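Single Protein Entry

Contents — chain, fold
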Amino acid sequence: MRLGACLNVAVEVIEPCGFPFDMRQIRRVALDYIEHVDLRRHISWEAFLSTHRGQSGRLILLSTEGTARYDKSAFYPDDTLLLGRESAGVPPEVRAAADDCVTVPMAANMRSLNVASACAMVLGEALRQTDLLPGDRHER
């Protein structure tokens, strides 16, 4: 939530998610950032897809099993970054729906970064490439 608020991007939560979706708890954890984030909740993967189908952007999955390094990939303004659970990743139907799958290069023998860290790295690069970092000319 904090990352979305600070970088001015919507956060979409697709259930079932890796945490209990209780707005009281989310407000407590997200502190005052919750008031500044465009939070969208989808009750299922199918509900998310029905919303996304009307949009032109790609679905870009972040995964330790990604085929392309995020820093060598091209991002576009309408892309949506997909992140899964740290423990299990995403279900097969989510992986199959992704238009691309990127990874963050890591030191040998390391399993993974936490989701927030990986997201911050990839989102920062995507916003840099598309001139959508806060303060850029084309910021939404």
The CA atoms of residues 63 and 89 lie 7 Å apart. The longest strand covers residues 11-14. Strands lie at 11-14, 39-42, 59-62, 68-69, 80-82, 100-103. The first helix runs from residue 2 to 7.
